[in-house]
Amino acid sequence: MDVILKNDITNKLTRKKLKKLYLTAFPAEERAPFFLIMSKAKSGKGDMLAAYDGEEFIGFAYMVCYKDLAYLFYLAVEENKRGKGYGGKILKAVKEKYSSNRIFLAREQLDESAENYTQRVNRHNFYLNNGFTDLPCQIKEANVIYDVMGIGGAVSAAEYEALITPWVGRLLRKIIDMRIIEK
Q1: For the chain, which residues make up each domain, given as ranges?
Q2: Which CATH architecture has domain 3-182?
Q3: Do residues 178 and 142 touch, judged by C-beta distance below 8 A?
Q4: Quick one: average pLDDT of 73-87?
Q5: How many angstroms separate the CA atoms of 4 and 53, rounded?
Q6: Is residue 34 within a helix (H) or strand (E), and if so which, with residue range?
Q7: First CA to last CA distance, the chain
Q8: Per-residue pLDDT at 139 exceeds 70
Q9: 19 exposed, middle or buried (CB, 10 Å; 0-12, 13-18, 19+)?
């Protein structure tokens, strides 16, 4: 079971699979519009990496990079492939591809009152088991505050701003509150 990451967003069938998984894997309040993430990938401001086991589509990772930072914006595995080690394999491939970068991600807070609290704990443990550590900050994106995990070191508020502004665009950046909150 070797996972290969492909940047093949020009393939219509791949785009269809990516969109279906994206829309089902993430709650609406945590999703950027799909056309936006794809247009950013097409323009080189993001990397939409389809993950395959051989020729079989199993998921994707979406990355936004700036200098030595790589923001794992989204990671998803096909529902019928979950629990089979593919998430860890995708992360391994991401870590290899971005081996010279500090990789970070935003994940749901461990809020005991959340309906999906057990899922949040499992997700946190998944990232811990795959080499990520909790970072001393949070990310606010629109109306959601996330905890931050990473590999390779901390991410400052200024670095996040420099990474996210070109991706979102200056106009949307003025409308959407996106920032790091240091603990």
Answers
A1: 3-182
A2: 3-Layer(aba) Sandwich (3.40)
A3: yes
A4: 96
A5: 7
A6: helix 34-42
A7: 39
A8: yes
A9: middle
